[in-house]
Design a protein that fits this description.
Blueprint: E1 5-6, H1 14-17, E2 22-23, H2 37-47, H3 63-76, E3 82-86, H4 98-111, E4 115-118, H5 125-134, E5 140-141, H6 148-157, E6 160-164, H7 167-174, E7 179-182, H8 188-191, E8 199-201, H9 220-223, H10 227-234
Parallel strand pairs: 1-2, 3-4, 3-6, 4-5, 6-7, 7-8
Helix pairs in contact: 3-6, 4-5, 4-10
């Protein structure tokens, strides 16, 4: 197979080895003032002469996949006042505490009267089950029960998503769903949420963000974040009416 154009986001030699006519350089890197990964990726396209001015990341969910969310909410009796929590992450050191997520789940349901749905892949089920055991409410768990497109639709319908640095954060950014992002070892300037109204919860420590695969200390960057801090970031939801209200959200 011969490729006309190869865009490599990892600066490897693959484009050259593939013999493509046009490819991104494995040597040239984005200027240091460009920090966020989205902007770095767009810079790579711009370096090939592609106009990226005003480029917007957006995922276009289908009607068929949207039906999954509609059917789920109809069967479970959930209205549109949804908060999605994504407690998992590819790396364990990017995960906030089980206790924190359990306390947050309880306060969101008690004080803001929202429907909380937890998402992730099948590998997150054990972690979510542990959260459920610490919560006074039964967790609505869709981890491993949606495909990617169905997850996109669910996040699109949510008033807010609370998440670690993980894939659902970036899905929410693409769908303009507000994010409360919990950051520790990774840098929110590079990977933080881009949706309007989003917030990052982090601790300003000498060692953070370390961007290391293992913590050299005691995971203070995540351990010191309290459920009160994360809940307060969600408080604007108190002013948001249900999705099916005749009134527009503020």
């Amino acid at each position: 197979i011969k490729y006309d154009l190869v865009v490599d986001l990892r600066n490897t030699l693959f484009p050259i080895l593939l013999g493509s006519k046009i490819y991104t350089s494995p040597i040239h890197k984005a200027p240091q003032h460009i920090l966020h990964k989205k902007d770095i990726h767009l810079w790579k396209l711009k370096a090939l002469g592609i106009n990226t001015e005003g480029a917007k990341f957006y995922l276009n969910p289908s009607i068929e996949d949207a039906a999954y969310v509609d059917n789920f909410m109809e069967k479970t009796g959930i209205d549109g006042n949804i908060v999605v929590i994504s407690p998992g992450s590819k790396s364990n050191i990017k995960r906030w505490s089980k206790k924190g997520f359990a306390e947050l789940n309880d306060r969101l349901r008690d004080e803001l009267k929202v429907n909380v749905i937890m998402v992730g892949d099948s590998n997150d089920n054990s972690f979510i089950n542990d959260i459920s055991n610490l919560s006074k409410y039964k967790i609505i768990n869709l981890a491993g029960r949606t495909n990617l497109r169905e997850l996109v639709n669910l996040i699109k319908c949510a008033k807010l998503i609370v998440t670690n640095d993980s894939a659902p954060l970036h899905i929410a950014s693409a769908m303009d769903t507000k994010v409360v992002a919990i950051f520790g070892p990774t840098d929110p300037k590079k990977y933080g949420p881009l949706a309007p109204g989003s917030l990052v919860i982090k601790k300003d420590l000498v060692c953070a963000p370390c961007e290391a695969p293992q913590c050299r200390y005691n995971h203070e960057c995540m351990r010191l974040i309290t459920s009160d801090e994360v809940f307060e970031a969600a408080l604007p939801l108190r002013r948001v009416p249900p999705l099916h209200s005749d009134n527009e959200p503020e």
